[in-house]
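Incident review: delayed structure delivery

Summary: a single-chain prediction request sat in the queue longer than the usual turnaround. Root cause was a stuck worker, restarted by the on-call engineer. No data loss occurred. The affected request and its eventual output are reproduced below so the record is complete for anyone auditing the incident later.

Affected input:
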Amino acid sequence: EQKYLYYKNFLDGARVHFGLDFNYLAPDENEGSYSPRWVTEVLRPRLDADGYRGLKLTGADSNTDWNIAPVVKGDRRLRGALYAISAHYHEDTPDSARNCGLPIFNSEDLAPYRHHFSCALDMAHKIIQSYASGRMVQYQMHPVIEAIYDSTPYSCKSILTAVGAIETAVAWPSGSPAELVLLLWCSTAAHRSGACAFSWSI
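Output delivered after worker restart:
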């Protein structure tokens, strides 16, 4: 009961106080364990009853494997409760994922770390490979722009900080024009995904 109310209170607060309705929700702990029974017997039916029938569930956001795929294929109720299966940091998929009967999402992939940036072509390659090789129809890069304190864990994972983006647009300090061009180039490269069917958007 408490776990469900945690989800519901978050969704209610976003809707009532900020006018936000979410399209997707992961049904369990990020990159942690998941419970098919919790999804099919608690979360999905109660969301439906509480006015969130249009909220799509995706799982399991694993950063190690696609173990949810054979579970989904063998569990009709779970397959009906989920909208898509998802994983992190994988641009390819096994046959079990492609044959599970649901769309496949790359729900978290890395932008090259800004301190060890290779090139924007690497980012474009990840996006294209996720669709062409992994047959994934949604791609989320984590994060391209970062707005967190330097003392926060993993604070080096973006290619550009929010402060850097503002400085680039306003003051053009030394080195920043290249950052802005890089950001615009990446946006252009990502826009090529618009040619792919389904839910890709920029």
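Verification: The chain is about 45% helix and 15% strand.
Action items: add queue-age alerting; document worker restart procedure.
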